[in-house]
Design goal:
The complex is a heterodimer of chains A (about 220) and B (about 160). With about 220 residues, chain A is mostly helical. Chain A is built from ten helices and no strands. Chain B has about 160 residues and is of the alpha/beta class. The chains are: A mainly alpha (about 220), B alpha/beta (about 160).
Amino acid sequence: MSERAQRLLELADDELIVGWRDSEWTGIAPTLEEDVAFSSIAQNEIGHARALYELAAAELGTGPDELAFDRRPDEYRCAPLVELHLLDWAHTIARRYLYEEADRVRIEALKSSDDAEVAGLAAKIDREEVYHRLHAELWAARLREEPRFRDAVAELWPYALGVLPPELRPELARRVGLEPASNSPLRAAERGSHTEQLRELWEEMTEVRRSAPGAQW
Amino acid sequence: MTAEQVWEALDEIPDPEIPVISLVELGVIRDVAVDGGRVRVELTPTFLGCPALEAMRSALTAKVEELGGEPEVRVITDDSWTTDRISPAGREKLREAGFAPPVPRAAGATTLVQLQSHVFRCPYCDSTETRLENIFGPTPCRSLRWCESCRQPFEQFKTI
């Protein structure tokens, strides 16, 4: 698989899985407004995944649904941050905040890619992500002094670093105000290894599709 | 068949979610090229997660076939669609239907300060005394606001 296809799948898998996790709050968020917000964010993230899978699929000679649902769990390239099954609102908001900050750093880099298709799609995604960042920014400002939120950010920080390649991590640390070096012996939760929680998610996410292989819906 | 005739026909296709406005008025048709019987239409989606995209694609295909052309609808996923592409007539139709049209894009990305400023006009009473209720709404393209003057909620198109 080309370097380009690998990078596209990493990004697409992150967006699909984080969207799936965000959608778990539909119907059970602490307020009605957050129910709407998380559902809408999830829809956007999965829409981004679809567009990214389409670019990868054109190169790999397959389709976006096949890439999203027909691979084995160990073939996904998502970062462990997006896989975590978080049952607590403080952790959920900490992930939204850290994921959006990390995503902003890499989308910014992709917008200046030499590959016109990738740069164009990154710019399109960036326009939509502005609203996710505003949502995360509002929550981060509201909870900044809350010990539960601060602990959740500290706990998820190694996972957030694992979303980005090493060369982009200092930029993330600068934006979030946390230093990778000062937290030594902190180690990033690197892409490539998966949590048990991904397998559980995958079982549920692909259940209907696996129940009728090859069906046209 | 000329490109102009195709544009006129496409202007009859309503947006699948907000049928008061046509796909041409919404600005999602980026280009039309006619080559003999072949008609190539470039569609640029509003939001990538918009479920109306497939409905738009099939409506465009059907319309070109109705004209007797051989359609090729290409979905272009770059950043060529912005809310500034909605035509003045389209904006007015949105407002009449109770959807506040998007404010023009400013230089740089939208900020919280902008969302909390008094530039958002209530589509019912025209007041700018409105406040942000939710950045998100019933579809990806809309936010929820509340009008302090006529005391009603309304849907505000996001600027992108």
